Amino acid sequence: MMLRSTSRSRPVVALGIAMILLGGCASLGPTEHQHAHARELPSWRDGETRTAILEFVQRVTDVSSPDYVAPPERIAVFDNDGTLWSERPMYVQLAFALDRIAAAADEHPEWRTTEPFSFVLEGDLGGLASAGEHGIVEIVLATHAGTDTEKFRSTVADWLETARHPDTGRPYTEMVYQPMLELLEFLRANDFETWIVSGGGVDFMRVFAEEVYGIPTEQVIGSLGDLNYEVGPDGPRLLRLPGIAFIDDKAGKPIAIHRSIGRRPIAAFGNSDGDFEMLEWTTAGDGPRLGVYIHHTDAEREVAYDRTSSIGRLDRGLDEAGDRGWIVVDMAEDWTQVFKASPVEQLDGD
Amino acid sequence: MMLRSTSRSRPVVALGIAMILLGGCASLGPTEHQHAHARELPSWRDGETRTAILEFVQRVTDVSSPDYVAPPERIAVFDNDGTLWSERPMYVQLAFALDRIAAAADEHPEWRTTEPFSFVLEGDLGGLASAGEHGIVEIVLATHAGTDTEKFRSTVADWLETARHPDTGRPYTEMVYQPMLELLEFLRANDFETWIVSGGGVDFMRVFAEEVYGIPTEQVIGSLGDLNYEVGPDGPRLLRLPGIAFIDDKAGKPIAIHRSIGRRPIAAFGNSDGDFEMLEWTTAGDGPRLGVYIHHTDAEREVAYDRTSSIGRLDRGLDEAGDRGWIVVDMAEDWTQVFKASPVEQLDGD
To answer: Which of A158, B67, B240, B292 has the most Cβ atoms closer than 10 angstroms to its Cβ?
Structure first.
């Protein structure tokens, strides 16, 4: 699609773009050479996990394979928090909401006596954690009720520019898993569509998904707040209301996938029991299927957590992954690098 | 994206595909020649309407134009009923629902005394029309409560195979507007994404949208029924419930566009006041915008209707289109052909 001529007078431009993308129309030898020496998924250690992923992609893209899947059906879905970026010490969207509540507390004296806002103002993170992703969505929606969608977008963008992860001091948009960035890119290079299907708010994730993950806004599925369309003196706008329209978690994930994509994915990646139904729905389809859990096993480079964690609990998933043929990624063992290199480190590596 | 090599060993295949799409790497002359002789939008008569559409596309695709729009932002949205295919004598989805109700009436004696089902069983089309698109969605959802999404899909597909338009005897999937098919294709050739945004049920439209319009399932937005995810002995399924989750009409259209696409379209096409807010939202954005109403003026080749019609009423839209700079397509004047040629006619024309 991208390579079609954008007007009938520009076949030469289109051809030029094609050559750039293909690595040079007239130099097939060097291109093949380069490909042979580039190792796919470089931050994934050799072993069963990496091999299983590569073999799956090989099977579904090989036209001579009985497991071949045509490109439109190559849909891969990814949870976000804990699967593509860190959810510790708290969901990033919660960190955003806490900052917003602190900034607006003086205008809302009622928050001091209303849960879950009082948890925030009292610094009671345990109380907050018990409110779960639902409580967080509630906080985020409430703190932005009355804001229109364009103002919300710029507020999030400004915050992401300046906010820093409390442990590493890095921007949250750098606290993304390097092996997963490689996996997204690898799948897209093999004509997969890569979708986010997350409990996070859709308008929050869309602010950074394209730049950070290469995922366009229309391939981001998330929780939804109520919206109102209203026409004022400056024209129409979409106003955020405090109500929750849809929580994209647990059984909500296959429902949202059906509503937004209309096809069953062939690959699904998650890290918690909130992703169980998404993996179940994906892998219950006919033909080749890939279900993957990211297991947070790395206490040194990140945080080790699973069965008893209030954030990103993975319990049933660990019990059933084996019988269901799902892959469990051992972050400590399977990944040579956890987080994306900072811009400075990337410069050193060149 | 499509032209990237699907595996590292296949640059030659990718190049071959590139050459086919580009019309031949080594023969730019003939390609330009062909383009110069093919008239864009062949079923659109020369005149202000056709010129305005062509000029808009020219402006947004010309990299040297101040109105240039990058491909990811080239989003065009289309209503379906009355914009892409006929909504007369009734919405196609209503014809489907009527057949389903007739088929299942014996199992539902309560329908004889419950509106809107009683309208159907009594043949009271006026009563039905007064129930509006909301009533139709209610009928469709109710008649399929308890069906899972895959069974629903096959039921619709079977019905479309055999059902015929009451006036023309043609399959409904041939009662589509030839000029609009050309417009969809023309926009996609210019790197637009073409989305359906319709009050119709999303699962109904997805059955034929890809084959008939070339629009993939993930670019179809419609009304939504409640769904339940349940796991039985045969695995998980998505069960259709009788409740309405979302009506994609009027102010619902910009809301659904925001939720599903996350970008404001630059072009919108509709035919009724139910599309007003979609055109308003689209054309209120910065930069070049195109708002188009299809006006059903052709009593000979179709049906002439507008301000007082119960189906597809176009009243406010006609009043305000001029001031708002929206184009009003006069079907009788602007289109040399209304419906897609039947396969037999197409053969004759070759």
So the answer is: B292
